[in-house]
What does this fold into?
Amino acid sequence: MSVTISSEVLQRMLAQAAASPEAEICGLLLGGGDRIEAAEACANVATDPARAFEIDPTALFAAHRRARSGGAAVIGHYHSHPSGSPIPSPRDAAQAMGDGAIWVILGGGVARAWRSVELGGFVEEVIGCV
It folds into this structure.
């Protein structure tokens, strides 16, 4: 399977990750189906942002409210691995809900997409830029 994203949105996400070499960045992926239309940067409120991410709940709830009012749906999220590769970590696997959400992980100047397919499990998605 694959997901599509504009090259501009993807480059913004990669630049955000590169600008934060000490802490994980994170944000929401907005769109529909397998198409990422926008990425909304959010504050990382994790207690140890150098090793984990937690999207600011206020931003998450606001995005879901906008979606209920006709805005773009929240189809997943993104985060970075500043000192690692863009594959799901054991911590990511522990947080995966198996809900079909798209996870874009940034690391080493590249992005890879994953879909949460079962509790703790992911399948890689090809990223297609438009």
Q: What stands out?
A: Strands lie at 2-5, 26-32, 35-42, 73-80, 102-107, 110-118, 121-129. The chain has a mean pLDDT of 94. Residues 7-18 form the longest helix (12 residues).
